[in-house]
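Our collaborator T.R. sent over the components below with a one-line note: 'Predict the complex.' Nothing else. No constraints on interfaces, no templates requested, no preferences about which chain binds where. So this is a plain run: every listed entity goes in together, and whatever single assembly comes back becomes the starting point for the next discussion.
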Amino acid sequence: MTTLLKNGKVVNVFINTLQEANVLLDDSGTILGVGDYQEADTIVDCAGKILSPAFIDGHIHIESTMMTPLELAKVCMVHGTSAIVADPHEIANVAGLNGIRYMLEASEFLPMKVYFTLPSCVPATPLDESGATLLARDLEPFYSNSRVLGLAEVMNYPGVLRGEPKVLEKISSALAHGKVVNGHAPLLRGKDLDAYLSKGINDDHECSTFPEAKERIEKGQWVMIREGTSAHNLEGLIGLFEEPYCYRCLLVTDDKHPKDLLENGHIDAIIRKAVRLGEDPIIGIRMASLQAAQCFGLKGVGAIAPGYQGDILVLNSLEDVDVKDVYLHGRLVVKDKQALPFFARRENEWSRRALMDTIHIEKTRPEDFLVPKRPLPARIIDIIPGELLTNVLLQPLDFSKGNGIDVKNDILKVAVVERHRKTGHVGVGFIHGIGLKRGAIASSCSHDSHNVVAIGTSERDIAFAVNCVKKMGGGFIAVDSGHVLAELPLPLGGLLSEEKAEVLASQNEAVRKASQVLGAPKTIEPFMLMAFMSLSVIPHLKITTLGLVDVDRQALVPLYVED
Amino acid sequence: MTTLLKNGKVVNVFINTLQEANVLLDDSGTILGVGDYQEADTIVDCAGKILSPAFIDGHIHIESTMMTPLELAKVCMVHGTSAIVADPHEIANVAGLNGIRYMLEASEFLPMKVYFTLPSCVPATPLDESGATLLARDLEPFYSNSRVLGLAEVMNYPGVLRGEPKVLEKISSALAHGKVVNGHAPLLRGKDLDAYLSKGINDDHECSTFPEAKERIEKGQWVMIREGTSAHNLEGLIGLFEEPYCYRCLLVTDDKHPKDLLENGHIDAIIRKAVRLGEDPIIGIRMASLQAAQCFGLKGVGAIAPGYQGDILVLNSLEDVDVKDVYLHGRLVVKDKQALPFFARRENEWSRRALMDTIHIEKTRPEDFLVPKRPLPARIIDIIPGELLTNVLLQPLDFSKGNGIDVKNDILKVAVVERHRKTGHVGVGFIHGIGLKRGAIASSCSHDSHNVVAIGTSERDIAFAVNCVKKMGGGFIAVDSGHVLAELPLPLGGLLSEEKAEVLASQNEAVRKASQVLGAPKTIEPFMLMAFMSLSVIPHLKITTLGLVDVDRQALVPLYVED
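Returned assembly:
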């Protein structure tokens, strides 16, 4: 069965122009012709419309959307996404190979193609306790899957520079399989960058300035311009839209939250923003299609041309990248901005069940969160507004009203409870800048090991919140004096929900609102901030199940500063 | 062990500029850094020199050079070639899978990397008798070899357009293995081109005009700009050096003769010519390196950048592309224009021996080349000067002085003797335009089936020449009245010599001179012309072991025109 998209203007990414042409598609998946075609089984009038190749997101963590691949596909397709390259780093840190297997199975046979790069850093750091350890030999069998395109963001660049065998083995194994190795080395420059790249690192998505990105391109890397829910690099990298740099870039989101996806879109939103910043939409489209394919060595996708896969968007306007209809693999999958029903094979029930019930903790009691009283300066995590970086606040704790918590001065307790192996390990510290006046919030989503993290105004509230997270099998929760104000259950690995994007977005909104009821200012995202308080690669002070981490020294440090 | 190439200017193919930088190389094969490096085990001063990535020839028939891969590598390396993509079409038409096996083995472990695409047209036509028939299932096992990059020039585009299963199976098998499919469809345009491309054809090397090449690029193909010994397409395609077209082209030779290689060079010669035509050498270098790699999906080669393979040329000058030294895989292989000795594993003796003794014919006698006398107009092959196209001369034969040969009017006899299966099949016809006044020439190199072809002034000379070719196991020969004037033995499959390029070039010169002694004008290359007289895809009249071929009708036709 053939479809003819007639009378539209076609974005030709090989010569960066719009061409008047009809496009003949075959529902077996291929574009049959671009030109003066008049006949087909179905003829669609596209007069006044733009036909664009569909978009590929070169780097995203599905877990950041909290959606299953199926639900994510429904949302992304509406925004013109034909493929994503996902890094299952989070679920692998919780469930190891079972996490990767689930992702592969749950994303098979979707109209939106889900490719993977394999997580390179499980665990992310020895200063934390993750649910799994993956070595090169664990990852190796997955390279035979054609949807596995390589090794994901090699964050451990110090390890690469030091020549650590475990990291290098993962890199060389990926290369030996003819796969790509994604980079992740913010601010690395000059000879250190050379040393990192000399191991075969294909690309980077952590560039934030033009000079940094320019150096990457000159040194042969692909630059992934990242514009997600948290990180916004497009504006800083807008110079990359100029020749010759534009030929070595692609567009990625890295992380996207449900509400942001629903309200602002996906890759389309990045191109839209570039247009607002004065750039040519065709260059953006080229980056998001042909060049994303080139970056990963994908053949026969990323363009509207005979023999290429029939992944075509019908846009109402080029400048607004306003997606009306979407054809994937030659078939209409989105009509008038609505995803059409499709048959999706349910993932293997075994692989799904392997991700259920992953919050392995004993019921916690308030006394689990006590700290010794000492008249010494304590290391307090100090939130810097708008950043994931934290400062260290050094001051004695005030034990006059409780166990060191000082709500009036916004010195709250933060705790991280090990949840993978029921070790009973609990890291307890203090945090400034969250603003809760009562109750507590807790979550099973805390980078990168995803233990249960909680911030609260009392040990009782913290214990209750942690126990609630355990009870719902993972998720976000806001509690006050023994009552649940709002919750967002994430039963799959404590990271993913099986709800639709709309439900998730509203649950997310509910817990955010509840945190405001508890006193958090509207200017911060307490759950997102809390999720990054365990990420001991972002300076300066963080906390894991093992205690406080001095990120700069990459060492555990005690609560109190003793001379 | 590291080498530092110091004080040179580096061709950066990512941003199309020259950069002052030192290049640090590791003899394990990789470029470690590009920048302000000062120390290494070996330091080479490259002041005043240009450092360029080495060149890749995206399409060549090794058989056209008549050299073994080993001898060819020695010549090409001196001209800066790091890799070739060879199509063993000719040897496969003689020896089938044994021909492919020999090529793979004889090219293993050379400093110059020899990649292959598998011959798609064995036999080339049903109107001829080749030594083998290769189906998709015969080619399939070779795709697991990492040096096999795809399926070679799909010349049978009429078969593709007609949907012939045997052709389509070969294409889909290559694509299923993630390999590329090379095109070969001169002059195909518009909807026919679309239909051809819709099967997944990656590129074409048969474009001769800019509009034709432009259409290919707009439709997503890579265009291989061909400049070889016989076909010269650079001048006609020089417009492709402009943006955006230049980003979708590479440079290839297709066929190169030993003398041409020695005297004029290889890919370097094409860039040099482009510069003479006013183009930027850096664009030519980019086409010949990074883009050749991209066309075939080769990762980590084709540029001077950290992590890329250490394939670097030291040029005396950019404009002359004057190659002084060559580093391949991080090691010096050419110094001051001289190839350094290298260890090359000899091919398996079995695979070599399988190509020996392939001229399977009974001793021929003059009477084998007689034709019946008829008073009717005969179809005579009429050479068009400077072309491989032939016209049909329709006139009665003059039997007054012999068996239809009329030396005075340059009507000579041409014969093709089946040599693969000793069938005794002999095609006999007449040819105008070769100009021999006495004797005969013969050769085991006749496209595409490579039977023994001879042109002569008498049946006795023809029979002697054919017998001499048989005796030497294949090759070129010029004879006169029972004496050999000159010969060029090609003992491997009747197509390849094991001599060095210099010896081959002088042998080739000797047989050419001898043909002139026999009367051939200096303006033609009689052995090359003769080699194409069996190629029944080039209009209009050709001859095979089965008789005369009307190419336009794709049918065998009798010598005489009967009403």
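Summary for T.R.: Chain B is about 25% helix and 25% strand.
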